[in-house]
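Ticket #4471: structure export looks truncated?
Reporter: QA, pipeline team
Priority: medium

Steps to reproduce: submit the single chain below to the structure queue and open the exported record.
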Amino acid sequence: MQPLLHDLAITLRAPTVVLSGRDGQIRGNGTQGLLHGDLRLVSEAVVTVDGHEPAPIGFEEPAADRGTFTGLVRHLGDPGPDPTVWLRRHRRVTASGVAEELELVLSAADAVECVVELALAADFAPIEVIKSGGETSPLVPVRVDGGVRWESGPVTAVVATDGGTTVDGAGVVIRWRVRLEDQVVLHWSLTAADPAAPFVPGTAVRLPAPVVEADDRRFTALLNRSLADLDALLLAEREHPADVFAGAGAPWFFTLFGRDSLWAARLALPLSLELAGGTLRTLARAQGERHDPATGEAPGKILHERRRTGFEVHGMSLPARYYGTIDATALWVCLLHDAWRWGLPEAEVRELLPNLRAALFWITGLADTDGDGFAEYLDESGRGLANQGWKDSGDAVRFADGSIAKPPVALAEVQGYQYEAAIRAAELLTVLGEPVDGLAEWASGLRSRFRERFWVSTADGHFPALALDGGKQPVDSLTSNIGHLLGTGFLDESESDAIGALLLGPSMSAGFGLRTMSSTAGGFSPLSYHCGSVWPHDTAVVVRGLHLAGQSARAAELGLQLVHAAGAFDNRLPELFSGYGAADVTAPLPYPASCRPQAWAAASAVTLLVTFLGLHVDVPAGVVTLDPPRPSPVGALRVTGLPLAGGTLDVTITADGTTTDVRLPPGLRLG
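Actual output as written to the record:
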């Protein structure tokens, strides 16, 4: 069974993540351990004092890469009810490992003597074995000066310490004999080396942290935590360390994912053009060149994920480079256009025009595998993802009665992505003086076909179906997918307004964000991965679409629901959480196997900032527009140092939504 994560303490700095209990102990249970890349190096790290584990009283995570755990050493010190000896375990995760300080503190009348021990073990288990709940075996270490070393193939992990080290088979014990009169600090660290790993830390880019102040401090707490997490998830290819992208999420998806990395870069665009450019170039280098049913590769197609080796879990067998995604190619084109609008230098855009042409070749031709005029997917290998949109679990595409659609499947949002990609590409190519090749006409035809085939009328209302199934029948459940059509230009104003109203209704939006599926649908479950849960990035994409479609009040209302939800997760939005509504629970409940942090969930906070500012940017035209919701959903909002077009934007929004004190970089004007 897949291990649960919701109650773990998680600290990270890509490509390393440490998952422990909230007492700081790493017990080798489930996913607990130090993972580097897609391997779990340390599987156990348990601290005792005279054989007793400290009694935990709290922990804090002051930064993405740091955690502090406090426990009482109750068998030592003065008699009486007040604790007089405690241990604080300070953890700092680096890109190459972890360092810990064990701080023993005494407030007793007399000094005490004790033995502190740290028991360590390592198994170097692959992530897919951990995710599937498989059995692992410990590795036997070798002694080195000042510590021990484990190794498997090219991967090594070396422990250094100021304590004494004992090795007994696969077990390692570091021991300190301590006389405690006031305070003593003990040290140990682990350094990993993985010369064959495809990805390295994304240190070439550090995300800026603009100063944001709001009356609603829940929003600033969410934003600051999200920016720190997104920064900690940055990776780059070993051969191209300057091209940084966001690893999708820890621990299951701590690697390059086409769709996830693209959406993270797109949602975070106001923060970093460098992240957008690095993501575009990294994926362009892996763009498909040939037809290969085993990997899903096709000419012009953007890949789904890349790992160090193949990935086998839950009956799937995915190759190290896997292209089983129907939407990443169009999203790549859309990110290129958006990055250009936000100020990506023209020279960088022009370098990617051959990849743009190749992507358009796939979008306008190869994506439609059966000639019906829509992009659809079918897993030809029989071992890959049965569903290849962002809702990629096997039961994600369901009719309103709960029955599962049969492939090939043409998703509603994918048609919108394809349309937007063609229109945005035509705009970009026209401005750059490049041939457009009938893109607008192709897009217009897709829009007409969609209106004829996708719209359905049910008890929930009149809206686009989730998909067309293999028999070309509309999959008639009401889902969040249709919200991804907002702001793409695919809908007219009345259609947009109708969808916005439906998505803000009680069956879809019940207080903590947007459900993936209506609570009235036959397949709905609040703890389903894709059929009733809430995904922060999904909500943010719809908030963004509402903002672009001019529905600022709805965008603000839905965005504020995410702010409300974040507090239940220490302001670290997870990959997803349960779809219980406010009528059922007072705070959102976790989806217990959810990644935390997740790149596109973290980037969602940037989209909320853009929405609450009412910010639209067109750097090539030299225009910035500020049209915040009225009243402001987070009260007075002041932003200083938001990076924009080689400079920064400073702005204040009053509680009633009035814009004041605007300072723009040179060359830009208010539209």
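Status: closed, not a bug. The export was complete when the record was re-opened. Leaving a note from the reviewer for reference: The first strand starts at residue 9 and ends at 13.
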